[in-house]
Amino acid sequence: MKFLKILILTSAVLIALSSPAMAAWTRNKEINADAIYRTGAYGYNHAGVFYINSTGSTFGSYEARGDGPVVFSSMNDFIGTETYYGPHYRSTVDTSTERDSIIQTCKDLANNSTLGYTWTDCLNPESNVGSYISPDEVAEIRCDGVVEYAYEWNNFWVWGKSSTGTSSGTPTNHDISYINYYGEHNNLGKDSPWVELSPYVQRGAAGTSWTLLKKRV
Amino acid sequence: MPDKSIIVKKNHSTKINQLYSNGNGKEVHDYLSTLGLKDILETAAEFAEEGHLSSSGLLLSPYLQKELDKKPALTEIEKIILDKDFNYNFRAFVLDGITHSKTIKGFNDDQIINTMLSIAKDSSEKGFLRRFALLNLRAPNSYYKKGTTDTQSELIDIFNDKNTPAEVRGAAITAMHRTGDPNFLTAVEEVLNSSSNHPDELIRCAAIEAAKSKKNKDSYTQKLREIANKTQNKDVYGSTIFSLGIIGSSDAVIAILDNYGRFEDNLSCDSALKRNYKTIISMINLNQPQKNIVLAIKAAKVAGLTPALEALEQIVASSQDQSLINIAKDAISYIKSNPASDNYQKWEVE
Fold first, then answer.
1. How far apart are CA A46 and CA A38, in angstroms?
2. In B, which residues are within 8 Å of A67 by CB distance?
3. What is the ipTM of this complex?
4. Helix B110-121, helix B166-179: angle, nearest 10
5. d(C-alpha B242, C-alpha B221), whole Å
6. Which B positions 55-94 lie with beta carbon below 8 A of chain A?
7. Residue B331 binned pLDDT confidence (cut-offs 50, 70, 90)
8. CB contact under 8 A, B340 and A97
9. For residue B292, which of B280, B302, B301 has the smallest C-alpha distance?
10. What's the predicted TM-score (pTM) here?
């Protein structure tokens, strides 16, 4: 009987270790509120915001998937069978309260269960909003929109359209929460990162000139 | 129309997978650039059948938009969206494309609005697709233009059907709010008046839309306070705190503080308090009841509200109550060490 128990236990461990989906994710360099990315969508990638509580007992990703509103997922769910690109950071996000502010915004998006998903645009507001789009005024969002909005609502810029609309311009109009700028973020692509946005562009894979996020190494 | 016999063969997805595994993706884009609307739709349908359109839709979306810019016949697109033989994720993807097309402006198109209503009403449809259709029904007064009583009862009928999934009934409330349906507040109040009889997802949507309505603030604050206090569901708690933050009255601030940090969710509370920094500052005033002053100082402290420092220093300078002075000093010290990010100008008082 004891031998049978050991055999069953050993088999279970071997099955768990041999399946990529079952392999437990181990925290490496992530810090609370880092933007995180993985492969997927034929090179467009997938984005989320990493959260870990003060005791380290709860951690995972705030993300928008095509199947519902913004959710908090385990890292294994975020990565799935894809390849993880790791954490990315903004150098100006320095203190734990600044990180908490970004996570507060992620929580607001997740608490807003009336939020929809869109493939087409990074973010769209409700109708009749004022100068700034607050978390309850976000009507729909894509995965890169979660990172873009959570950072820029708190005045930490990530991506902005080229001042000239060409590769020779400089990034400008970053704030996706500003009513006049969100539309400039709604141009999905990865080959013209000075005017197009996607998770791939946002993490700096199309060049580091057009995003202020840096890979944490 | 996409050809179902072609979709089954998965020619496009096979080709795209081959091209993608060969290089960096440029060849994939070169291939997609050669495709017309029918081929793009067939590719999307193949991805949906393979179960990854929810993520790989990003690859196809720009090409779909490019084809929709050519203004194809809406009747044909409508047939695709309504065809239950197609994968529901594919139909949602097409619906997303048509409603967001800058050329077609599907949000405002009567034909598309009718299509969305048709899907939303159909109980044999997947809940995901029904919710997706309802959340794209957002043009103010959109289906009033038809001016018939029947259309005005469609959304409340969806809400009233207790066999309908909660996320669909919740989305019906959101659609009622966005489109100006006269039944909107009736639905909201039915949920809030007897929340224990309703599913969690429905309570979350009703709470948020009640707060967004800007109506009956005192009554809704009381009901949301009870829900935040009693719920055993952390998502309901988070959405209720979020909703109290939207309401933003001094009673709402007190309700947030009374239920602060349940489910260890301090951050949702801090955010709800931060957006109401002006209300909190107005409560840090010696003319206010003592209880309110103490609560407001606590709120300013936990949310790290730097704009409240001046009012706190005024308490220290003017109060005769040493205990009040002490908690104000403690709050000042804490806030200076733990200031929240400075985006206060974005929270507009409406």
1. 5
2. 54, 128
3. 0.95
4. 150
5. 12
6. 55-59, 61-62, 65, 89, 92-93
7. very high
8. yes
9. B280
10. 0.93
